[in-house]
């Protein structure tokens, strides 16, 4: 999901100060202790609205052509999809709180990181609900990359959906020895001017977090609560590195792509020699669809790249919480997770623990066709670092605009 932009802190603080006299859409507290049979019965025949990022053909195909018809057939649930990611979701919730809407437009959302942080700040999520889902028993919540989201314990307020790691993308025929550290990157862009850039989006800011960690001296440099002093010290070094070298960037650093998809296209047509992204670089489907050359590979930064999970949440004023719980439980089922992991399709790493699956499903996952081109999650494991606190991402967005784009 890659995929979420920042919300202005002022807007967030304004929402936090809204009246505390919020009303639930209805008394759904009982669902937190109800039997699954009663939840499933209440869910049947409902219409559930799901707001999610729609920037991937493979993801849209999985949702629209598999999930939507399957939940209709299995549970008589009409799943309606609407486009929206971090900013739109938070703004929607803020607006509905201001209007005191007891029943909202959206039931469930695809989120992580700073969006989870912001929604929790304004009491925009309903829960905890995850332990009520039967399929949550198949997840290893002792995995720190699953149980914490940007250093925040999820505490049952969002359900893990996928896990992935950030990777650098390159063509090994054009770049036999790609850079794996900041000094190597500096040498690379000077030797190959115009072939590197930073996208001004969630993906680009994630790269900057990996660079911040390297400047901090270790993979764990950003662990723990947000540290203002540490951020200022490390970010000053980061902005200096970028501004000292941005004349060697794509378009001489006068402009930056606003979306990862634009950067992917620039890599595909040869303008960029290095790209990057989540899902271990997101290489497989782009090679299979002919966008990337078959000589594309992915790797992790020497100091490490971010590994994280993305999640499904239920909004505080969802009118169909039982229906949302049923849909989310299905999305965590071995059937749905196996379909989502198809290397020819969505190519998404499962959050299910193999040792918790029945033998039939364990064998299916282990015998499934593997990626031909992109690295698998296990290959990057030694270089995985945890997402830092959400304030780092929020500050990076703001300062990248002020100190780099507008400088």
Automatic annotation (TrEMBL):
Coiled coil: none annotated. This is ABC importer, periplasmic component. SUPFAM superfamilies: Periplasmic binding protein-like II. It comes from Zobellia galactanivorans (strain DSM 12802 / CCUG 47099 / CIP 106680 / NCIMB 13871 / Dsij). NCBIfam families: PRK11622.1 (NF008633). It holds the Pfam family SBP_bac_8.
């Amino acid at each position: 999901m890659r995929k979420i932009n920042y919300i202005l802190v002022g807007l967030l603080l304004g929402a936090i100060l809204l009246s505390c006299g919020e009303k639930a859409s209805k008394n759904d507290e009982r669902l937190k202790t109800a039997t699954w049979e009663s939840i499933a019965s209440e869910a049947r025949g409902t219409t559930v609205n799901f707001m999610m990022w729609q920037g991937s053909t493979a993801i849209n195909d999985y949702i629209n052509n598999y999930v939507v018809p399957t939940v209709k057939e299995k549970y008589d649930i009409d799943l309606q999809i609407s486009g929206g990611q971090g900013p739109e979701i938070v703004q929607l919730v803020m607006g509905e709180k201001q209007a005191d809407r007891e029943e909202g437009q959206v039931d469930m959302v695809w989120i992580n990181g700073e969006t989870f942080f912001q929604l929790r700040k304004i009491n925009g999520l309903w829960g905890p609900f995850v332990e009520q889902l039967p399929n949550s028993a198949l997840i290893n919540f002792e995995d720190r990359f699953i149980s914490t989201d940007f250093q925040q314990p999820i505490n049952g307020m969002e359900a893990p959906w996928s896990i992935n790691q950030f990777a650098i993308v390159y063509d090994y025929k054009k770049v036999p020895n790609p850079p794996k550290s900041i000094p190597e990157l500096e040498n690379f862009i000077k030797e190959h001017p115009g072939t590197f850039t930073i996208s001004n989006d969630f993906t680009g800011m994630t790269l900057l977090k990996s660079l911040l960690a390297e400047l901090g001296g270790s993979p764990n440099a950003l662990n723990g609560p947000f540290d203002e002093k540490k951020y200022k010290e490390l970010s000053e070094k980061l902005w200096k590195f970028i501004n000292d070298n941005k004349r060697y960037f794509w378009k001489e650093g006068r402009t930056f792509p606003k979306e990862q998809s634009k950067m992917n296209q620039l890599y595909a047509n040869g303008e960029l020699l290095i790209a990057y992204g989540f899902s271990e670089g997101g290489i497989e489907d782009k090679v299979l669809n002919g966008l990337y050359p078959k000589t594309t590979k992915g790797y992790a930064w020497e100091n490490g790249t971010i590994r994280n999970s993305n999640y499904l949440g239920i909004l505080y004023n969802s009118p169909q919480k039982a229906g949302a719980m049923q849909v989310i439980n299905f999305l965590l089922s071995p059937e749905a997770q196996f379909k989502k992991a198809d290397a020819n399709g969505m190519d998404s790493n499962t959050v299910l623990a193999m040792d918790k699956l029945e033998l039939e499903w364990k064998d299916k996952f282990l015998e499934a066709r593997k990626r031909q081109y992109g690295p698998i999650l296990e290959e990057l494991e030694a270089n995985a670092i945890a997402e830092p606190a959400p304030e780092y991402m929020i500050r990076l967005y703001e300062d990248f605009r002020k100190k780099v784009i507008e400088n």
